[in-house]
What does this fold into?
Amino acid sequence: MEGSSIAPFAWFFMLLSMGSVTVLTAYCYIRILSGSDEPVELEAPESDVPDS
Amino acid sequence: MSAHTHAQERWATRIGLILAMAGNAVGLGNFLRFPVQAAQNGGGTFMIPYFISFLLLGIPLMWVEWTIGRFGGRHGHATIPGMFDELGDRKRKWAKYLGVLGIVMPLVVFIYYTYVVSWMLGFSFFSLTGGYFGLGEFSQVAQYLYSYQDVFDGTIHGGWVAVAFFLITIVFLYSVLSRGIAGGIEKLALIGMPILFLFAFILMIRVLTLPPAVGTPAEGLNFIWNPEWTSLSDAKVWLAAAGQMFFTLSLGMGTIHCYSSYLTERDDVTLTGLSTGATNEFAEVVLGGTIAIPAAVTFFGVAGATAIAEGGTYDLGIVAMSVVFQGLPGGQFWGQITGFLWFFLLFIAGITSSVALSSPAIAFLQQEYGRTRKHAVLMVMALAVALGTLHVLFYHRQFLDVWDYWAGTFGLVIFAAVEIVLFSWIFGIDRGWKEMHIGADLRVPLIYKFIIKWVTPVFLFILLGWWAVTEAVPTLLMRDVEDAPIAYDPETIVYRWFSRLVMLGLLALGLYLIHQAWVRKAVAAEASPAADPGPAAS
It folds into this structure.
């Protein structure tokens, strides 16, 4: 490959890796934003919630 | 009492929680360790075992840790001993003692990691004031760093300089941690993480638009991503990928559990957990992969950058980058600004992780010994100053290397193996699966039930066995072997033993404190039979 260029397989792995983590991140935040970001409840937890 | 104390603290917003968890995960390793690991372990092909580790180790363990944390929080526990005790239905008295790993290991890592983070604050200051500008050559900048690290070497820096930046970092941590979860840790994340991403984007664009010098930014990207197909058959590459997954997601530390314990029982852990993992991966793969190595290759060429990377992440992230900033187009002013952006970015990445690492010990003192938050923070910071001073004094005697290997590397895998067995086999995967899906915004694919029960534990035990044979035993015996995690140096043997003894002392202290805490609970239960604080200590 030419000295200043990026080899085809390097492009492939770079774009695939960066693309997949970007898509995953975007998916998560879209899912969160499409729901509600209300403040987490401030009251004490119910200590009697059964374990199973 | 403990449940009451714990119930007083909660995350204020979901985005604050995600950023705090992401701040826990995004650390120096994302920007310094990942690109070096990728370049040294097959380039593009490294990403195959890396993503397989993410799917089979990273994501499942993350969900397990979030679930254990929220489950523990519901029962009034913010730290691992209490959580493990609950996972064992309070019948298995040994479980809480295994939880010592989740208190002492993050504390040990916190102490030395905070010292390293303070270097980044120091170099942010040196960048703004032009301290290393004019040195030019790599060897001279390296001497500048080494003089800073060695308090007995007064050739460039006075011995007090490293101590001063360490103490400033500790004071800053005290001011954040003493304000509590929502008022301190969450606010730091809400301010710090956007700044971190902004600085990283600016630096990424600056690096990728650098004019050609000895090399080019494209050659740097090629250096990281060009695949070496033969590396896929090398077990070391697979282990390096799995190891990187632990470092980058802060798994096996006890910090995710501690943060998750401040959720309410109905807060989602599946989508929120996945979001923090994804945020961390974005910071690592997209941003971490496009700054340090491409910049180093542009200024030093592929051969030069390879030699630098072999010298370690600090040679790459601190020394080489300091040389790069001096040679940037636009003159010294822009070089100083860019240098500040880089080192302050690393400082933010590190300090948000330091905050998380100290949290289990603070929460333990609060809950089990009834300390106020400020008092608990003060105690942990005082311990960090006392033991951190040993790292300041003996950094060049491999004192830090010993802690980094046993607590910050090998210990993570041991802890993860213990927790996955407790969760999947003792608590039970069916109960665990139901627990995970309480309030869930994302239904986890059913295949993960199988993965969490079988694949992740097997993966972990293979990893543990391999490391034990190839690394841990030779390191334990201080043998002179090639590629040892701690370079063999006969002159430092006394310091390495001293370092081990201090760490073992902390472990013994942790076990004693856990034992005493459960004795106190048993006494309280006898005095007040209506309450049910748990069984007597064994």
